[in-house]
Fold Lipid II flippase Amj.
Amino acid sequence: MDIQLAFILALTFVIHLIGTLAYAFRIAGIRTGNIAIAFSLFNILVLVSRISNSFQAPFLAKRVETAIVDPALHHLALDFALVIAAASLATLAGGLLIPSFQRYSTAAVGAFRRTRSVPRLMVRALTPRGMVLLSESAALPRYANVWQLRLGGAVPAGIVLLNVAVTALWTVGVLAAIYAGSLEPQFRVTASTLSAIINGLATIMMFVVIDPFLAGLTDDVAAGRASERDFRRAVIWMVVSRLAGTLLAQALLFPSALLIAWVARLI
């Protein structure tokens, strides 16, 4: 593995880790009663994710360009499979870190209420006391919360399955567009701009169905109309379905790239 590929894998890991840890901030918002503050603080991590995303695509595109010039230089099919595998590993790691991170983010929300300053909060997080709090927040998912999982009730099976599909499409969207450039080198610039063909459907499903469902459940728990146990169950199913979606993305990469390459030739 060369340095460029290792950097791409690291960026992918960060992107999907942050995406999974979003659920921890929802829990922190519920427990503190400060949902808006929790989401505002999470936006700091979103900035890190977006910066990582802005670097990931150009580095992947450069890898495809060099492989077109010298096919023996990179094994693109394996490289892209490793990138998706990094997404799966990050999702699994994020799921395991949610108990720790929700405790830490709960403390961060409380600290922000006192300081009302993000820069001051970030400085405090880097102090020895902040590091001690981080270590004290360490916790693993409770076995009882996992083995008692069942679909239905607060977590409809349709939402879980839809989240699998959304995650798979989002994971593969940009990757397929870039990979399509290796299938149709003469249209590689056009192909690289067509990720919306894959991501567009995922975006619609996310913002029309999944995100409103989670927002409604969050408000229900905050208002006492649903239990925190129901929300934890929903979070676990969201993480499991995200993981399943990244695994499904492995199978969708090549067909999606073929679709984008066909559209690039057609338009």
Observations:
- The mean pLDDT is 85.
- Residues 3-266 form one domain.
- The chain is about 85% helix and 0% strand.
